[in-house]
Design brief:
The chain is mainly α. The protein is built from 4 helices and 2 strands; from the N terminus they run αααββα. Strands 1-2 form a two-stranded antiparallel ribbon.
Length: 64
């Protein structure tokens, strides 16, 4: 995906498009899952926490 297309997606997510927000989360799901391990075991709560923080960050993001 080109950076121009990603910026368009990001703008839609910032403006409240939940489908696009879900799409962005899915784009980063492998990375989220990789960082959702505690003591060597996958932790679903950790994954959900990371996703919620990603959503919060996207909503606060400012595009110039």
């Amino acid at each position: 995906m080109s950076s121009k297309n990603f910026v368009k997606l990001l703008q839609k997510a910032i403006n409240g498009d939940n489908q696009v927000m879900y799409q962005i989360i899915q784009m980063y799901q492998k990375l989220i899952n990789k960082n959702s391990y505690i003591n060597g075991e996958f932790d679903e709560d950790c994954r959900a926490y990371i996703e919620s923080k990603l959503v919060e960050a996207i909503k606060k993001f400012k595009i110039k």
